[in-house]
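Before relying on records like the one below, remember that each one covers exactly one chain. Contacts with other chains, cofactors or solvent are not represented anywhere in the record.
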Amino acid sequence: MTQESKTVCPTCNGKKIIDGTCECNMEWRGTQKGDDWEDCQCTPDQPCPTCSGTGYIDSDS
């Protein structure tokens, strides 16, 4: 019988997703929506590539 243990994924710290980041700067303009300009550019949240969105890495003991 093989015993498996799960280790918390070090890349996402067990959160399953990597939060997107936003950078805001009044010096440059991002995109215009209607009459308003958005000064922030954000990357979307994405599933952790290391653990495939599970939050844990399977490791054999």
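The chain has one domain: 4-60.
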